[in-house]
Design goal:
It contains 16 helices and 16 strands. By secondary structure, it is α/β, with parallel strands linked by helices. It folds into three domains: about 100 residues, Arc Repressor Mutant, subunit A (Orthogonal Bundle), CATH 1.10.10.10; about 120 residues, Alpha-Beta Complex (Aspartate Aminotransferase, domain 1); about 190 residues, Aspartate Aminotransferase, domain 2 (3-Layer(aba) Sandwich). The longest helix is centred in the C-terminal third of the chain and has 27 residues. The C terminus is likely disordered.
């Protein structure tokens, strides 16, 4: 029987992976069948023999054999045990999924609930309301820029258009962050900037510390990059740095202002503690300034410009469709990131960069931001009142002056996903806590954003959400009811 088990010598399990051992074993056996190491009609070891040889549970082997049988790779025959079929015998159709890289397979499908009733209120998106954007003014700027400047139809400088970087540097200076134009790299949105940081500074298995819960886009990139995620649990004070103490990390990704999804703004003392722990871990700190600081507390990038990279975007100030973002840091670091960017795209579109630079120079973005901010504040006040009236049994974070985010804590027995689905059936969209959890756990939380919901719809939407929570509670048999008024 030893010869039959020789091929098992190089089977290894990643016991730290979220992929079940049975799936890992099935994939390893399937690979050996496809390469011919295991011949057609050859008999596999019994489940007991394989469990002993690999020091795993017999039930794990049985589950792996079932997976292989469902894939048409093996077949259990009376008197012969489990035998190998020819690879692909089940179907001659080409299956591209068998060629997927592990990192691509790690990306989860979009589970956002779709409204199955007429949409009443979309609390699920943290994006600006484009109705407050001066579209006609910007269109004129764009047309003028495109028609008058032939230099914009060629390749851009590696860092991006200088006049835009000058405007971005001016913005950062107003926030206490001193960066020269050559210390700024223009990206196609903040998401590309974050992707470039993972690609430049991490290899599979490296440690990256993230707040928990955190921005779903950062979690997707971390999973895709194959890094080890080190969660830093978020409280009302900010992230807990205890998990980082005594550890090494490549990157520490933080949102000190209006953390997404909780809406929490980190105090000055906590910022110092987080920064100290990150520097002791040997990490670069990525400060996501997705919204301009309004707390008056010095950003991390102003405290330690040598170790903090600022990730900025115009998606939350103007409109998401622009896809204009930037990374600001020391020149040597920025130059290295720019090299990586050129492997993916040569530039963020120049005509758009030029138009945005002119728009910022004229202060048009500030006017738009001010008018939108007044409306968002009225929506926030309405939401805060409605939550306290219609959902008085629920606590929440966020929702301070000017903050459109509310992080609701549901009764522990409730599923955030179930509530989101029940709300969608009533025409109300919310983001479940699972979207922001490093492990995808179905947290008893919801994120609400009033940035796109008209004031007249806010109270109605929260009333329908209250009904959805009560409905989910009754189905779950939760012990504690949620008052619905």
């Amino acid at each position: 029987m030893l010869s039959q088990l020789d091929w098992l010598a190089d089977i290894c399990f990643d016991r730290g992976s979220r992929e079940p051992l049975a799936e890992q074993l099935a994939a390893s056996i399937a690979a050996r069948i496809e390469t011919g190491l295991l011949a057609r009609n050859g008999r596999l070891p019994t489940t007991r023999e394989l469990a002993v040889a690999l020091a795993i549970n017999r039930g794990t082997v049985q589950a792996a054999y079932r997976i292989l049988a469902e894939q048409g790779m093996v077949q259990t025959r009376v008197g012969s045990g489990t035998v190998v079929l020819r690879a692909g015998e089940k179907s001659a159709d080409f299956d591209f999924s068998r060629l997927l890289a592990k990192r691509a397979s790690s990306l989860m499908p979009d589970r956002a609930a779709a409204a199955s009733a007429p949409l009443i209120a979309d609390f699920s998106r943290l994006t600006p309301d484009e109705r407050f954007f001066p579209l006609e003014d910007f269109t004129r700027t764009l047309l003028y820029t495109w028609s008058r400047r032939r230099d914009l139809w060629q390749y851009a400088p590696p860092l991006g258009l200088e006049e835009l970087r000058v405007e971005i540097a001016r913005r950062l200076s107003a926030q206490g962050i001193a960066r020269a134009p050559e210390e700024i790299l223009v990206t196609s949105g903040a998401q590309q900037g974050l992707d470039l940081l993972f690609r430049t500074f991490t290899d599979p298995g490296d440690t990256v510390a993230l707040e928990s819960p955190t921005y779903a886009g950062a979690l997707a990139l971390a999973r895709f990059s194959g890094v080890e995620i080190l969660p830093l649990p978020v409280s009302e004070e900010g992230p807990d740095v205890a998990p980082l103490l005594g550890r090494r990390a490549k990157l520490v990704y933080l949102m000190p202002e209006r953390q997404n999804p909780t809406g929490v703004t980190m105090g000055s003392a906590r910022r110092e503690a987080v920064l100290e722990a990150a520097l002791a871990a040997g990490a670069l700190v990525v400060e996501d300034g997705y919204q301009e600081p309004e707390s008056g507390i010095a950003p991390l990038a102003a405290r330690r410009p040598d170790r903090v990279l600022w990730l900025g975007t115009l998606s939350k100030d103007l409109v998401p469709g622009f896809r204009i973002g930037w990374i600001a840091g020391e020149a040597g670091v920025i130059e290295r990131i720019a090299r990586v960017k050129q492997t993916a795209d040569f530039q963020t579109p120049l005509p758009l960069q030029a138009a945005v630079a002119a728009f910022l120079r004229a202060g048009a973005d500030r006017k738009s931001r001010k008018s939108r901010g007044l409306e968002v504040e009225m929506r926030r006040l309405t939401a805060a009142r409605a939550l306290k009236t219609r959902l008085s049994g629920l606590a929440f974070w966020g929702g301070e002056i000017g903050n459109p985010l509310f992080w609701l804590r549901l009764p522990a027995a409730l599923s955030g996903r179930a509530v989101a689905q029940a709300a969608a059936a009533r025409g109300v969209l919310v983001a479940p806590g699972a979207d922001f959890d490093p492990w995808g756990e179905d947290l008893p939380n919801l994120r609400l954003s009033v940035s796109r919901v008209e004031k007249r719809r806010v109270e109605e939407g929260i009333g329908l959400l209250a009904e959805a929570i009560e409905d989910a509670r009754s189905h779950a048999g939760a012990a504690h009811s949620v008052p619905v008024v």
